[in-house]
Write a structure and sequence with these properties.
Blueprint lengths: L17 E5 L15 H6 L1 H7 L3 E4 L3 E2 L11 E5 L6 H13 L3 E6 L9 H9 L11 E2 L22 E5 L5 E6 L14 H16 L4 E4 L39 H12 L6 E4 L6 H4 L10 E2 L2 H4 L5 H16 L6 E3 L8 H4 L22 H15 L5 E5 L20 H5 L44 H4 L6 H14 L7 E3 L6 E6 L2 E6 L5 E2 L5 E4 L6 E2 L3 E6 L1
Parallel strand pairs: 1-2, 1-13, 2-5, 5-9, 9-10, 10-11, 12-13
Antiparallel strand pairs: 3-4, 6-8, 7-8, 14-15, 15-16, 16-20, 17-19, 18-20
Helix pairs in contact: 5-6
The chain binds 1-deoxynojirimycin.
């Protein structure tokens, strides 16, 4: 049964693009301080062009106290000295364009850093001032206002409210922060806020950015009365968002996206906007990408799907139907800087992005090579699907989740905001290994690295895999070349009859078979274009093959 419509040849780049996420602090460090930076990224852009991706999305590199690794912005229109300068950003964009790569930058509109002058001015201006109206300040409950205004929880643990002390020393109101206490939420009902973000978009579009990834695109609107809401503390992330949820996925966000779309459309070159919106079901998420709203939304429904043939087929069909219903391309994503790297995530029972660590709270440690085999098989499913795919840095090297990070080296605010120490996201953020024999595996010249790199990563270094047949790096390069040559991004998908725990589908002239069963399955005698593990007449457990149809 055909479930997708071919895209016209003249369709814009983002409809079929493979977009590679760079997490700047962990990609490449040119200054040698152990934190990645913009000149480091520029020096390694050729790796991404050679990999065959269409665009690069950069997580935030703006001025920031770095309490949430840059998602706490204190100046949206400047580069944090940790990462370089505005000139470095210009040079990066120019070099990317020379190499034929588009650049998507991150924008963080739900909250700023508490060190942003806008928030500092709000504190200084005092109660009742227009400056206070930029953020969500409310009086506390209880006789002396010492209880938070409602029961909302921070995504990183603990209450979502912090009480301020006024200039005269008296206890003041509370401000809302759905994330860390240093990330106060804006009040998007205030037109002043919308005007400032128009300027931010224009600032980066004018510098040549090809698009924006919009942080927390499901969270900007809050129910005006800020009602109590019972959340499961382990499911604060909007994995489900009923229409009456007081802060996730509310209808009032849509006029904001229409306004942003008009700005993007006023620029040449098919500028694109992609939503980070943790909203289910996908039919609801599709509202974020209606024709006059955003261009794409990350498909977290796909990311959260377990390694199970029935569930995987269902989410593929559901995604294609939901996004096509509004004329948008589906996206596909398996890994990012907030989730357990997919080879490990698909191999443990715990699907939520709470991290894996050593000790009693640890999920079972997966076998590294079995996890890699499964991860590679999952990648070859994703890269065969029509639409646009997102890769996260290091997945092309097959990096495992870093589990053995000592407690004292952990950096994620989740780790220290939760009483029982939820491991959080450090395990997917460890700096990349570029060269097998260099200090810090070539990440920095000095050998410094802001999170420790496992000694066993020698074998994952790009230098150890480049040109090596069958390596994960070469598998990704081949997959991206074949995806382009066979037009898979703009194809129609047809499901073929298959046995239990095996997925079998055809996209253009490529037949994809995925063996998720425990046994080997027979393989049709036809040309093998690519396989996640060499087939030997049969297809082994946890293997995907692309055959000439
Ligand atoms: C989503 C980002 O991906 C995550 O890293 C960040 O902590 C939160 N938004 C808050 O900005």
């Amino acid at each position: 049964m055909p479930t997708s419509t071919p895209t016209p040849v003249s369709s814009p780049w983002w409809r079929t693009a493979v977009i590679y996420q760079v997490y700047p602090r962990s990609f490449a460090d040119a200054s040698g301080d152990g934190v990645g930076d913009l000149p480091g990224i520029t020096s390694r852009l050729k790796h991404l062009a050679d990999l065959g991706v269409d665009a690069v999305w950069l997580s935030p590199f703006y001025r920031s106290p770095q309490n949430d690794a840059g998602y706490d912005v204190s100046d949206y229109c400047d580069v944090d000295p940790l990462f370089g300068t505005l000139d470095d950003a210009d040079a990066l964009i120019a070099r990317a364009h020379e190499l034929g790569l588009r650049i998507i930058v991150d924008v963080v509109p739900n909250h700023s850093s508490s060190e942003h002058p806008w928030f500092q001015e709000a504190l200084a201006a005092g109660p009742g001032s227009p400056e206070r109206d930029r953020y969500i300040f409310r009086e506390g409950r209880g006789a002396d206002g010492s209880e938070p205004p409602n029961n909302w929880l921070s995504m990183f643990g603990g209450p979502a409210w912090t009480r301020i002390t006024e200039a005269d020393g008296r206890p003041g109101p509370w401000y809302l922060h759905l994330f860390d206490a240093t990330q106060p939420d804006f009040d998007w009902t205030n037109p002043w806020v919308a005007d400032r973000f128009d300027e931010v978009l224009r600032f980066w579009f004018d510098r040549g950015a090809d698009g924006f990834r919009i942080d927390v695109a499901h969270g900007l609107a809050k129910a005006p009365s800020l009602p109590d809401f019972e959340v499961d503390p382990r499911r604060t992330g909007g994995e489900w968002a009923p229409d009456d949820h007081p802060y996730w996925g509310r209808a009032e966000v849509h006029p904001i996206w229409r306004r942003w779309r008009a700005i993007a459309d006023s620029y040449d070159g098919d500028r694109a906007l992609v939503a980070e919106a943790w909203v289910t079901p996908l039919s609801k998420l599709a509202r974020w990408v209606r024709r006059d709203e955003l261009h794409q939304a990350f498909n977290f429904g796909y990311l959260m799907t377990a390694w199970d043939a029935v569930e995987l087929r269902a989410v593929i069909d559901e995604s294609l139907a939901a996004f096509e219903g509004v004329g948008a391309p589906s996206t596909w994503v398996l890994s990012n800087h907030d989730t357990i790297r997919h080879p490990f995530r698909l191999s443990v029972a715990e699907q939520l992005p709470h991290g894996i660590g050593i000790g009693p709270k640890s999920a079972d440690r997966p076998d590294e090579s079995a996890a890699l085999a499964r991860g590679r098989a999952a990648t070859l499913v994703m890269l065969a699907l029509p639409g646009s795919a997102y890769l996260y840095q290091g997945e092309e090297l097959g990096l495992p989740e870093a589990i053995d990070i000592p407690d004292e080296a952990r950096q994620d605010p989740t780790w220290w905001r939760t009483p029982d120490g939820v491991y959080g996201r450090d395990g997917c953020r460890v700096p990349l290994p570029w060269e097998a024999d260099a200090p810090a595996f070539g990440f920095s010249l000095t050998g410094k690295s802001w999170l420790p790199q496992p000694a066993s990563w020698t074998k994952y270094a790009a230098s150890a895999q480049a040109g090596v047949a069958g390596s994960t790096l070469e598998m990704y390069r081949s997959a991206l070349r074949l995806r382009r040559e066979h037009g898979l991004g703009q194809a129609r998908i047809t499901w073929n009859e298959s046995i239990e725990d095996v997925l079998d589908f055809t996209v253009n002239d490529v037949r994809v078979i995925v063996n998720m069963s425990d046994t080997e399955v027979p393989l049709p005698r036809t040309e093998v274009l690519l396989a996640s593990a060499s087939p030997t007449g049969t297809l082994a457990h946890d293997t995907t093959v692309w055959l000439r149809a």
